[in-house]
Amino acid sequence: MEKQEGRDPAAVRTDDPWYDEPAGGRSERGAAGVPVAGPYGGLPRQQAHSAAEIYLEVQRSPAFQEVRSRYRRFVFPAAAAFILWYLAYVVAATAAPGLMARPVAGAVNVAMLAGLGQFATTFLLTWAYARHARLRRDRAALELRWDTQEMTRGARR
After folding, report:
1. DSSP element (H, E) containing 104
2. Are 51 and 154 a contacting pair, CB within 8 Å?
3. Which DSSP symbol is given to 12?
4. Which helix (H) or strand (E) holds 95?
5. 126: pLDDT confidence band, cut at 50, 70 and 90?
6. pLDDT band, very low/low/confident/very high, at 147 (cuts 50, 70, 90)
7. Out of 45, 54, 110, 111, which residue is the most buried by the measure of CB atoms under 10 Å away?
8. CA gyration radius for the chain?
9. Distance between CA atoms of residues 103 and 130, nearest Å
10. Distance from first CA to last CA of the chain, Å, rounded?
11. What is the pLDDT of residue 59?
């Protein structure tokens, strides 16, 4: 964003300088000079009339639907399992205080181990989510992002 003294605030440039040139390796073109789809099921590169139409086209695309389904296939079962594990801990603490107070080693009892297990599960789930995103979604999502930026760049000109 450029701002100089004496300029009208409405005349301040707000466009993104990174849109001036396509990123390296992003200018793949077919024989007719038309951009081709990327290796991860990218979008067909058609010129849409507005940014709203472009984003609706992206949302309806099979590549976007695949990214969303991969996300849902991981997050919903993982969240359900974690909530069940947490509720089991709370129910056991209130319904079976004798079980939770049972000593395991010295002053450490079942309740302490289960509580520490909650922390360990949180860190494990965070690691698993980050790994899943890196291996199963990030490349496809980045490809969609590049496709969308190229399409909106064409719509702005």
Report:
1. strand 103-105
2. no
3. S
4. helix 62-95
5. very high
6. confident
7. 54
8. 26
9. 36
10. 19
11. 85
Measured distance CA(81)–CA(106) in Å, rounded? 31
Q: Among residues 75, 74, 68, which one has the least CA distance to residue 141?
A: 68
Per-residue pLDDT at 121: 95
Write the Ramachandran bin of 98: left for phi over 0, alpha for psi from -120 to 50, otherwise beta: alpha
**The pair of three-digit structure tokens given for residue 36, joined into one six-digit string:** 């081709």
Quote the pLDDT of residue 20.
47
Give the number of residues written for the chain. 157
DSSP 11: G
Please state the φ and ψ torsions of residue 103, each to the nearest 5 degrees.
Answer: -70, 145
Query: Concatenated DSSP letters for 82-93?
Result: HHHHHHHHHHHH
Q: Which two tokens stand for residue 10?
A: 């409405």
Rounded Cα distance between 37 and 128, Å, is 30
Q: Could you read off the pLDDT of 7-52 as tens digits, one per residue?
A: 555 554 555 544 444 444 444 445 555 555 544 455 555 554 687 8
Q: Which residue has the tokens 């466009």?
A: 15
Report residue 92 CA to chain centroid gap: 35
